[in-house]
Each structure stands twice: as structure tokens, then as C-alpha cells.
Amino acid sequence: METGNDRVLTFRCPYLKSDVELTLERERHIAGRHPDLLPEYKACISETLLDPDAVRQSPRVMDARMFSKWYNDVKGGKHVVVVVMSGAGAAGRSWIMTAYLARRLAGGEAEWKKD
Q1: Positive or negative CA dihedral for 91, 23, 43, 110?
Q2: Domain positions in the chain
Q3: Are the CB atoms for 68 and 80 separated by under 8 Å?
Q4: Mean pLDDT of all residues in the chain?
Q5: How far apart are CA 72 and CA 77, in angstroms?
């Protein structure tokens, strides 16, 4: 769905059994705060939601989950972390709060990990 500044991209997320939205405002936030991720590695956001290595509960926000996936070819080896709001606090929808690159994963209780 795309309408000017209200553009919303959707990404499939089998783990949540739903689509996850990325609004233009959130995309601008990520590009501004994490220019090492966007725009160059935008496809990694989709891949991380489709096939994460791990899903952790956010230590900061109750209804947020952190999806992560390791990429050898991103900046010499980094995790892509996508933080998704879902559940009651997300008004019945799932949406990306932020996304970033990390050398190591920090914090958050493991909810699921790929075998």
C-alpha cells in the first residue's frame, strides 16, 4: 500500500503468522539513525523477518520482539536486528519500530532460536 507520505511497505513474517508493516516515518527514522543499514541493506530487513536466526523479547518494550539474522557479507559480518511491535500494544497490527546492525546481540530473553 502506498499513498504519498503514508506509504506502508509490508513484509511477510512466518514467525508471527502475519505481515509486518514498515511506514515511511519508521523507514526515515532507521535511515537517519542507522545509515549503515539503510538504504544499502534494505533487503536484509525482509530476509530477517522471513527467516530469522533468533527471536528475543525486547528488554525495553513489553510488546516488542527483536528478530536477528547474521550476515557474513554485511560490513564484514554483522547481525541485522529488526524490532517489531505486535500484540495488544500494537493495536492488532505488527510494525517495525526500528532496525539496526550489531556485532553482538545484547539483552532480551530468547523466545526462539533456529536449530
Answers
A1: negative
A2: 4-101
A3: yes
A4: 92
A5: 4
